[in-house]
Amino acid sequence: MAPMTRYRNIVILTGAGVSAESGIDTFRSAGGLWEQHRVEDVATPEGFARDPDLVLRFYDMRRVAIQTKVPNAAHEALARLDREWAGRSGGGEVLIVTQNVDDLHERAGALNVLHMHGEHLTVWCTACDARHRWTGPLIERPPCPACAAPSLRPDVVWFGEVPYRMDEITEALARADLFVSIGTSGAVYPAAGFVRLARELGADTLELNLERSQGSAWFDETRLGAASVLVPQWVGEVLGD
Ligand code: OAD
């Protein structure tokens, strides 16, 4: 790989591992969310149609929980990179594409964050298609602030639904000369395919993860360890500390 300071445009993909040290459960670890709940029940449109109360309660609890968590050193380091990069790279860009539905990147101060799997703190009205910031529960079917229909659902992408803003992500990957994946198991597409696309489009690729992921073989370099340690180290290299 080229020396870190030679890059201009960087795309960073984050997953649940970046928020694990803030106390938010990952999905596929032992005791993770998908061991405690069936994906089909709480993360598919069919599950929602079958038992909306179960699904709304699940997301109401998660929405409350994330508001009690705080960003960790990995979020802080990425926010610093985001803020300082344009000045250091002569106008280059950093884009953080996150699969996470928490707001810890933003609360750490990151500016360029794209939530490809949606967000806990917004809701989507299936009657009028509006989205609203939302911190409270949905279980009582509150009216949509725009159209008053009791049709709000979590603004989270479920299995079988198309992730958000894929065109923007593909364009950013085409401009990127470095793609970095942090804290994701590489189990869920299309995000798991970004590394191959980035390579084909000419970017160097780096993975920072606690353990080898399903996609590790595709990366030029994999560094193993906790995000709160690896990410600040890597950001220090990139910013030439
Ligand atoms: P996973 O739970 O599948 O993977 C989390 C990854 O983070 C694993 O590879 C862990 O080894 C790693 N990890 C755990 N703790 C870490 C730490 N402290 N530092 C660094 N790495 C750590 O979560 P995702 O890959 O994000 O989608 O899952 C992808 C998608 O699957 C989610 O966005 C969600 C889920 O189903 C939807 O709900 C649509």
Key terms for this structure?
single chain; binds 2'-O-acetyl adenosine-5-diphosphoribose; alpha/beta; 241 residues; 3-stranded antiparallel sheet; 6-stranded parallel sheet
Task: Describe the protein's architecture and organization.
Helix 5 (73-89) runs parallel beside helix 9 (227-238). By secondary structure, the chain is of the alpha/beta class. The two termini are 19 Å apart. The protein is built from 9 helices and 9 strands. The radius of gyration is 18 Å and the shape is globular. The longest helix has 17 residues, at 73-89.
What is the strand arrangement across the widest sheet? 3-2-1-7-8-9
Averaged pLDDT = 95
Number of helices: 9
- Uncertain runs are none
Identify the bound ligands. 2'-O-acetyl adenosine-5-diphosphoribose
Question: How much of the residues is beta strand, in percent?
Answer: 15-25%
Question: What is the share of helical residues?
Answer: 25-40%
| Radius of gyration, CA atoms, in whole angstroms | 18 Å
Order of helices and strands: EHHHHHEHEEEEHEHEEH
| Structural class by secondary-structure content | alpha/beta
Please give the number of β-strands.
Answer: 9
What can be said about the biggest beta sheet? 6 strands, parallel
Q: Categorize the overall geometry.
A: globular
Give the termini distance in whole angstroms. Answer: 19 Å
